[in-house]
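BUG: 3D viewer hangs when loading the predicted structure for this chain

Environment: internal workstation, default settings.
Expected: structure renders.
Actual: progress bar stalls at 90%.

Input used:
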Amino acid sequence: MIEIFDIDIASIPNISSSDRSLCQLIQDDLCQIKELRVFPFDLNKSANRTVFTYIGKWHNIIEATKILYKHVAVHVDMTKHQGIHPRVGAIDVCPFVLLRNESEPYLTFYQQEINRLAKFLSQTYNLTIFFYGIMAKNKAQFDLSYIRKGQYEAMERRLKQGMLIPDYGRDLNHKLGASILGIRQIMLAYNISLNTKDVAIAQEIAKKIRGSGYIDEGEKKTGLFPHVKAIGWYMEDFESAQVSMNLMNILTYSLHEVYEAVEAMASELKVKVLGSELIGAMPYEVLWQSALYFSRKSNFSSNNELELINFAVHHLKLDKIKAFDVKTHTYKLSDYDF
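Structure tokens produced before the viewer hung:
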């Protein structure tokens, strides 16, 4: 029997900074932790935000997360922060992902452990902390979007008015803001850049693919993908409008389905896809599924698995707007099967 402490989990903290020297400092310290797999960080200047990704045993994850909070607490000041991505604090969100087994007693154990970690972080940094998703004690705070309403600037007012109920730290630390922790399923942060600067086009596509849908002439319309969250924005880093997406429960549908849907809608609106980007890392199996799809669709065959994978990368345009390396941007779920 596999002990609970022996399983590997992932953490994907999002910090409100695009300071490369700070991010490299954090990354260097994380890489010193034995048996922790650290992926390249994703820094975005327009969002003024950086995403870290690491996988390891729980004691490694705790050590890494404490290191990250320590550095950010010193170097990030939310009273001076600006960026296009919604955020509530210096470490905006820090999700933990069980890579394979989400059944009891694993979920109960890690919820208790995350609660213990949250208490430590709150007490150490005088930090307001919210739990979201399955850990949310207040049903309204299940979704990140609810906690982020009004963003950092509205946080103190919402706390005072009782619109938000923190799990730890009722008095807002103005320098650090708030931090959101929880357990979630595997998700891809995935963006598609269009060859236009017209944000309205990206927003039009986003509303039609996201699960929450949209209102059309007073009538509620259902979005194309129930598990997709999407917005349209202008990404100065690429000088283009983007459809920015969170692909929730990605193992229940395909990455190429989403890509082709956005590509088709873009074509209808007389624009083209410049490229797509992954934020963080993805399961290798997700990309392999797209490799099989595109190879069959194009009647392309090869006995070389990497060649097939790169064929998918090419069709998804994953390497067109920024570098993409299969070795450093994917992990195999089969390595963490239990």
